[in-house]
Amino acid sequence: MIAHTPTLFAAVALVATILAFCLLLVGQFNRGDNLLLTGCGLLAHALAYVCYTLFGHAPLWVSYVLANSLLSLALAFYSASLFRVRERPVPWRPIFAIPLLMLQGLISLLETVEPRMLLAALVLMLQCALILYWARQRALHKGRAHLLLVIGAGISLVGLGMRVVAVLAGTAQEMRYDTSNLKQTVSVAIGTATVMMYSIGLVLMAKERSESRLQHLAGHDVLTGTGNRRAILERFEFELQQARAAQYSLAVAMIDIDHFKRINDVHGHLAGDEVLCHCVRQLQQRLREGDSLGRYGGEEFLLLLPRTEGEGALAALNGLREAMARNPARFAGLEIELCFSVGLWCGVPGEDDTPARLIAKADAALYLAKAGGRNAVRLAA
Ligand SMILES: Nc1nc2c(ncn2[C@@H]2O[C@H](COP(=O)(O)OP(=O)(O)OP(=O)(O)O)[C@@H](O)[C@H]2O)c(=O)[nH]1
Q1: What is the pTM of this model?
Q2: ipTM
Q3: What residues line ligand 1, using a CB cutoff of 6 Å?
């Protein structure tokens, strides 16, 4: 089916304009995310296609030079949006230098046909290839959004490649913006797919990013960054099942910083906060892979050591306690010494051992450690 090319251009412009206004409306409320940049890209994309529809009716600097420079600007915005959504610094200058160079190059080649077509297609191809490269670089999560963006960049490379082939084959006239033929129909259809895939891909990336942020917040302690009570209890359920099924010993340690209230009273709450963070850093540095730490409450931490017998657990916890005593926290130029007490339960969990029950046992041992003078590890009976 051969469609009327200027009408197709107008349809793409309309779709891009609607999408752009939706994103600009949503994005303006949060300038930190990438929706605003994606919206600007779509607006430039829409304007480019408006200029294409004017081919043959408006001067060439509008329908060709401005049109292609606007398309290049759209790709620059999409690139910036990609950096923003990945929370990486946006290289504004190089990204936006490309459309400017395109503008300059097209102005100087305005009187030619093939060279200016080649320049426009090759620069746009370079930008799509860069988007592909940046999308793959340091992509932590290659989900649906990533796939859409990669497909979008890939097919736009194909569409632009068709233009380059036409020029090199001496059939550049077939790709004039006011000519309707199968190649043009395919090429503009690819342009439409590109608009949709870039914009939906980038919006989905923003959604995936906020979902992973929320997921992180739901399972982590805001102050120390370690797992929160919910997360460590969930982990406890899992570890308990594993240990019960494979019949190995699990160590459950309740760690409580000694005289923490005094630290707050003497040095202030901020110093107390720093002591908590220091404590988590010190513990995390020394844990094995597979061990799990979480903040159970104020200055109390729950540590799970799978496949650990009583003696090994006592040695590990005493090692942690001594390391803490050797490494005071630092706050406002002061050294704040700290130590902690530990209540430890260790064994192969039975059918009726629940997290609550084992925590109660570790808590009872912790109470004895505190009552015995603190800075000690006590094994539960
Ligand atoms: N800075 C700071 N303090 C906290 C935080 N959460 C709880 N606290 C304080 O931690 C203190 C805990 O005090 P206590 O339960 O009396 O325990 P303690 O002083 O460590 O005494 P022992 O456990 O018996 O050695 C309280 O003063 C809480 O206000 C926090 O996130 N930051």
Answers
A1: 0.73
A2: 0.95
A3: 223, 256-262, 264, 269, 272-273, 276, 298-299, 370, 374
